Amino acid sequence: EARSAGIPEEKWVYLHGHSTLSDCHITERPDYSRSRSLEGTLAQALESSALTADDIEYFDIYSCFPCVVLLAAEALGLDWRKRALTQTGGLPFFGGPGNNYSMHAIATLVEKLRSKRGAFGLVLANGGYLSKHAAGVYSTAAPEHWEAVDCSERQLEIDQVSVSSLGAIDDGVVVDGVVESFTLVHGREGVQYLTLVVRTGGSEGREGSEDGVGGRALVKIGDRQNKTLQAINAGEDPVGRPVLLRNVPAADTGGDDFPVFTLSEDIDFDQLFDQSTAMLVRVGSA
């Protein structure tokens, strides 16, 4: 294509390796502190190039949110404080014309590689909630051998490990769980409600899922629990706190689409996450 377009050979830039992988729905991912699809994409792109991160002169990591850059740097073994991880200035500053930032990153990288012949560059693209990734490794040096990369085996590894949603809890059964993440939702009048992502691992009278990791549930804590909402708004962190879940009829939850914690009294933050307090929830799919 380059030859037919009349581009001089000294300007040619070659693709050495690549990968593209996707992750499962965010509520099904086994570990919220990492992205298996991001890690796998970077690893396969480098492996298919027969290179390591130390061989890469230029990086451009998709930078829609800081977590993408930080997770990529961690996967590559790079110190983001010392290595430049963008060639354009980063998406927040360069922009994303036509929802096409990574193509601009590749174009910018091509100019850098033409000015430093033989060097290697890597571009990582990302989409969704760290949901899908693509990476390519480029250089003016022609690869000794090149073939398209088969990503299906790595994709299967990701697809086979997921956390199922917690099904219905039988009456009278209390399920142990741990808060993995949370979102505090604000409105015009201040804090409105809190949503917890709770991970369970089985309980008395109820087995965990087949892979032994239990399941997940979303729990909504309404403004009736104002003390808890204000405590978290002021900096208290519920992540890692143990919780107890037990079933309550759907009619008692106000018809919400996901579980709602309801108590008649406004209890303190520490009381809410005390092991003697069972959250009354209707558990459904997360």
Structure explained in plain terms:
- The protein is an alpha/beta fold and 286 residues long.
- The chain is built from seven helices and eleven strands.
- It has helices spanning 36-49, 66-76, 91-94, 101-115, 152-159, 226-233, 269-272; strands spanning 14-22, 58-61, 120-127, 132-139, 164-165, 174-187, 190-200, 215-221, 242-247, 260-261, 278-281.
- Strands 5, 6, 7, 8, 9, 10 and 11 form a seven-stranded mixed β-sheet that branches.
- Helix 1 packs across helix 2.
- Residues 202-213, 251-256 and 281-286 have low confidence and may be disordered.
Give the topology, please.
Blueprint: E1 14-22, H1 36-49, E2 58-61, H2 66-76, H3 91-94, H4 101-115, E3 120-127, E4 132-139, H5 152-159, E5 164-165, E6 174-187, E7 190-200, E8 215-221, H6 226-233, E9 242-247, E10 260-261, H7 269-272, E11 278-281
Instruction: Report the sheet with the most strands, covering strand number, pairing sense and barrel closure.
Output: 7 strands, mixed
* Number of beta-strand segments: 11
Overall geometric form: elongated
The rounded distance between the terminal residues' Cα atoms is 48 Å
Mean pLDDT: 83
Give the proportion of residues in helices: 10-25%
Task: List segments where confidence is low: pLDDT < 50 over at least 5 consecutive residues.
Answer: 202-213, 251-256, 281-286
> Structural class, judged by helices and strands?
alpha/beta
The radius of gyration is: 24 Å
Strand content: 25-35%
Task: Name the helix and strand elements from N-terminus to C-terminus, one letter apiece.
Answer: EHEHHHEEHEEEEHEEHE
Question: In DSSP terms, counting alpha (H) and pi (I) runs of 4 or more, how many helices?
Answer: 7
